[in-house]
Design goal:
nine-stranded mixed beta sheet, Enzyme I, Chain A, domain 2, TIM Barrel, binds phosphoenolpyruvate, about 575 residues, Glucose Oxidase, domain 1, binds magnesium ion, eight-stranded mixed beta sheet, single chain, globular, alpha/beta
Length: about 575
């Protein structure tokens, strides 16, 4: 019997955001700015350790200069002066010398030496009444955090796990996620987060169990602890007992049997029992998902979130991007892959592209705004997408548009890139479908205007719920107010569907709402004929659609559009869903 078997079982309850069960040891990812331990190093490793630090200083310099340039372009040189002070702190000779000397003499890792020295400088200035000196304190803190993040990032860039692990973290940003060795990750257990955070979305995409709102879990667990993570009930069980493991094994056998039954018809079309066909497509974030997507029964990729590839290598070349996009297109052939151009910003932060942290990132420089502001990045991406389109069916859509002007500007750049490539001898197809995401209320309210500029509209309901309701999709305090069935949200969806019909352009829904089987009757009733969901949900959604009757769903939707309460609307749609496919609710 090993040591773990003798320890007592302990259970934490969180919120389930991605279903499934995993049993493995945990890897605890600590907060970015935890004080680094004074780890001793060998004399022969001193130069290597200092080189790692110098590399972190260099990346920080590039980062600060990039932010400085953006500030200069946007707000003039006086606002950008602050970064001059940051560069001076970064290159301060006495700090550089002192760190090198201490590391050499005391043989302690540079992370701890640098951090402690910077803290000493901060302590000397902290709490001073003089506002100038207080500002200097903040400057040092800012630079220290940047450098420490890069030092830590370097250490964790590709954390390699010998065995499968469950990741425990306070939160997992999209850039944290892309750096993980995903082949070894079996699940996520996070202190904070919500069902609509990108960590949860990715967990569902990769079919990994995930539980959020496990408060203080990072302090309770240590890397190597054995746990069972239950993404259906939202439980994290430390040292699961043999009885618990047996219970879960039998539960797993039953759910595997149900899933196998669903999978049999996954490649068949999804047609309601009165003949209405719904295209069920998949959402993707990583190239490595393409085989699973192809096998899921998805008819096409309705949303490829390209920012995750970008975060894997923000400086990746046009050739590399074209190669990745081409792989995706070829994997799905003859189906289409709809690539969404970069949606950097919000919680998907790339400091090189989007500059300094913003006070309100979801209302800031995000999506098409970044692409139109950073045309070097945008053109590289558009050219790579057009090159991939020569190898199969690639659609292109623009995220976070708030009106027609952005669509026109983005299309103009796309046309320019196509002309350039043709002048270089490439025969770019002339039937690439171009779309706009409808995820900002202004876009839904002007969907008729946008529809006349594009070939399709794609409803990004994750954002189209948060913006009209003023409910941050990541904020757990207001999670109860994040209501997909709020009448205002449904009216915006209805408006978009109607605008699409009038302009004869396709309307898809690619937000997480599309995968909610409680809402399938309502969405079909509203006239949506294209749903894009996580690959693991394709067979379920197809099964649900086959059990529905479009005419009945239409009556349901008409009644619902007269209702005023979000919970009552949800209950009404769910009642029809449960009556038609009770087997999906066990
Ligand atoms: C959405 O907003 O619904 C969407 C699909 O985009 P993301 O979740 O990446 O913001
Ligand atoms: Mg969105």
């Amino acid at each position: 019997m090993n040591e773990a078997d003798t320890r007592t079982e302990q259970i934490w309850q969180g919120t389930a955001v991605s279903s499934g069960v995993a049993h493995a040891v945990v890897h605890v990812m600590k907060d970015h700015f935890d004080e680094p331990d004074e780890v001793p190093i060998l004399a022969e490793d001193v130069e290597k350790d200092l080189a790692r630090w110098h590399a972190a200083l260099e990346v920080t310099r590039v980062e600060i200069e990039a932010v400085q340039k953006i500030m200069e372009d946007e707000q003039g040189s006086s606002e950008a002066d602050i970064f001059e002070a940051h560069l001076l702190i970064l290159h301060d000779n006495s700090i550089l010398k002192q760190v090198e000397k201490t590391v050499r003499e005391k043989l302690i890792c540079v992370d701890a030496v640098y951090y402690r020295l910077m803290c000493k400088h901060m302590d000397a200035l902290r709490g001073l009444a003089d506002s100038y000196l207080r500002e200097r304190f903040l400057d040092i803190k800012d630079v220290t955090h940047r450098v420490m993040r890069h030092l830590r990032g370097e250490m964790l860039q590709h954390p390699m796990f010998d065995d499968p692990v469950i990741i425990i973290a306070h939160d997992l940003t999209p850039s944290d996620t892309v750096q993980l060795d995903r082949s070894k990750v079996l699940g996520f257990a996070l202190e904070t987060g919500s069902a609509n955070s990108h960590a949860a979305i990715i967990a569902r995409s990769l079919a990994l169990p995930a539980v959020v709102r496990l408060h203080n879990i990072c302090d309770e667990l240590h890397s190597g602890d054995p746990v069972l993570l239950d993404g259906d009930e939202g439980l994290l069980i430390l040292n699961p007992s043999p009885a618990t493991l047996a219970k879960y094994r039998s539960r797993e056998e039953q759910s595997d049997a149900r899933e196998d039954a669903l999978q049999i018809t996954r490649h068949e079309p999804a047609i309601t029992n009165d003949g209405f066909k719904v295209d069920v497509c998949a959402n993707a974030e990583f190239i490595e998902e393409m085989d699973a997507i192809r096998d899921s029964g998805a008819e096409q990729v309705g949303l490829f979130r390209t920012e995750f590839l970008h975060l894997e290598d923000p400086d990746g070349s046009e050739d590399w991007l074209a190669e990745c996009y081409t792989k995706a297109v070829k994997a799905m052939a003859p189906g289409e892959v709809i690539f969404r151009t970069l949606d950097i910003g919000g919680d998907k932060v790339d400091p090189h592209a989007s500059g300094d942290p913003e006070p309100n990132p979801f209302l800031g420089w995000r999506g098409i705004r970044v692409s139109l502001g950073r045309q070097d990045l945008f053109r590289k991406q558009l050219r790579a997408l057009l090159r991939a389109a020569c190898h199969g069916r690639a659609g292109i859509m623009f995220p976070m548009v708030c009106g027609v002007e952005e669509v026109r500007a983005a299309r103009a750049l796309l046309d320019q890139c196509a002309s350039e490539l043709m002048a270089e001898g490439l025969s770019v197809p002339d039937d690439i479908q171009i779309g706009a995401m409808i995820e900002i209320p202004s876009a839904a309210l002007s969907a008729d205007l946008i529809a006349s500029e594009v070939d399709f509209l794609s409803l990004g309901t994750n954002d189209l719920i948060q913006y009209p309701l003023a409910v941050d999709r990541l904020n757990e305090r207001v999670a109860d107010l994040y209501q997909p069935t709020h009448p205002a949200v449904l009216r915006l969806i209805q408006m978009t569907v109607d605008a699409g019909k009038r302009a004869d352009v396709r309307v898809c829904i690619c937000g997480e709402m599309a995968a909610d089987i409680e809402l399938t009757p309502l969405l079909v009733g509203l006239g949506l004929s294209e749903l894009s969901v996580a690959a693991s949900q394709v067979a379920r959604i197809k099964h649900a659609i086959r059990k529905l009757n479009k005419a009945e769903c239409k009556v349901l939707a008409e009644e619902i559009m007269q209702m005023s309460s979000a919970p009552e609307i949800l209950a009404k749609s769910r009642a029809l869903a449960e009556a038609q496919y009770p087997e999906l609710f066990v």
